Amino acid sequence: MADINLTRRGHVQIVEIDRPPHNYFNRQLIGDIADAFEAADEDPSVRVNLLCSNGRSFCAGADLVGDQPDTPEGRRADTQALYNHGVRIFGTRKPIIAALQGHVIGGGLGLAVSADFRIAAPDARLTANFTRLGFHPGFGLTLTLPELLGRQKAAMLLLTGKRISGEEAMALGLVDRLADAERLREAALELAGELAEAAPLALVSTRLTLRGGLQDRVAAQLAIEIEEQSWLRETADFQEGIRANAMRRTPEFKGV
User: Fold this and answer.
1) Structure pTM?
2) Which alpha helices (DSSP H) does 21-140 contain, by range?
3) SS3 212
4) pLDDT digits (tens, 9 = 90+) for 13-72
5) Which domains are delineated in the chain?
6) Nearest alpha carbon to residue 158 among 133, 130, 135
7) In the chain, what is the straight-line distance between the N-terminal and C-terminal CA atoms, in Å?
């Protein structure tokens, strides 16, 4: 697990993403997070997971400039493999708290929403920026975000790609608590401690009921998202979106 650090605080497993400064994810990183959560499921001394990051940002999305497969078939297979690990995360049994600082973008937002609770710094910046890249949302966000916020609020974020602060996310219900950046992790650990005081078997049982077969529903939604992402990835608009994002300029989309 080259890009995550695992530590313990009592009954809390701390899973720290360690690809600073912005912690862009790839297939290996999502697989390692899934491995850590699944290991926690098998360890009776772990009752809660805390997902956090070392760096300026929680997760600024997928690594779009690293090594990429050079064929459409290869890119689709790589996306499928990544999302298979994402489905594993949604299938783990013990509660997850995410501590969010800096940028929480695209698939990084999807990873944050996979958690049960989110604590954010007031000046965190959250966005589902997919349409601004000429792309389709992923990581199950077209299911999880409407379930969390309601259809209209989710549509506003997903269709506009609007960036919101931690305070705005709190008002929307996307974030559960706010904490200054310097004590963000400690605040997340305090909530984890509250959860860890519950009877562990009852905690897992109640969470399973509340999630209502979430893993299967996310897997079905991801199949749709992959179809849309696969053809959009081959468009000129997507290439323009990636270039514009790298150059920090407004993209000039043509609808092709």
Assistant:
1) 0.95
2) 27-41, 72-91, 107-113
3) coil
4) 999 999 999 999 999 999 999 999 999 999 999 999 999 999 999 999 998 776 678 899
5) 4-181 (3.90.226.10)
6) 130
7) 40
